[in-house]
Specification:
Number of domains: 1
Number of strands: 2
Helix content: 40-55%
Pfam family, one: Retrotran_gag_3
Strand content: under 5%
Strand order of the largest sheet: 1-2
InterPro entries: Copia-like_N (IPR029472)
Shape: elongated
């Protein structure tokens, strides 16, 4: 007789996945839901980002947006599970933002790409909104190989003062 407290789920591909795996989607998970109460409008990026971070961590899916859960090779048995979870997370992100912002990131292939494009857009919006006295530090930030987060850019501005 099977243990009723079993910690694994068998999926249709024949791959057995632990119930605490990031690849597990629960029956309540669907692409039409919004995980946060406030839609991203641009002005509320910091609070929206924090709320999405907490919601995705609670669902054990934040690795899909920060890039720690990488896409497996197409020959890997978990590739289809990764794709399904990536699309689900992608949908959750799109459903939690204003349609104008969603349209600007609609064609990214991965949830992690959407996340980084949103960050880049918000950093650019933040930097372009500053007055001319910050031109030097803005130029330094824009010359970085990878744009920092909005909070890191703000921190760099404060250090420069």
């Amino acid at each position: 007789m099977a243990d009723s407290n079993s910690n694994t789920n068998s999926v249709s591909s024949g791959v057995t996945t632990s119930s605490d795996s990031a690849y597990v989607l629960h029956p309540s998970d669907n692409p039409g839901i919004s995980l946060v109460t406030q839609s991203l409008t641009g002005d509320n990026y910091a609070t929206w980002c924090r709320a999405m971070h907490m919601a995705l961590m609670a669902k054990n899916k934040f690795g899909f947006v920060d890039g720690t859960i990488r896409k497996p090779d197409s020959s890997d048995a978990k590739a289809s599970q990764w794709e399904q979870c990536n699309r689900m997370v992608y949908s959750w992100i799109l459903n939690s933002m204003h349609h104008d912002i969603a349209n600007s990131v609609m064609y990214a292939e991965k949830a992690s790409k959407v996340w980084s494009e949103l960050n880049d857009q918000m950093v650019m919006q933040f930097l372009m909104g500053l007055n001319e006295s910050y031109n030097a530090i803005c130029s330094q930030i824009l010359l970085m190989d990878l744009l920092p987060t909005v909070s890191r850019a703000y921190s760099l501005l404060l250090q420069d003062e």
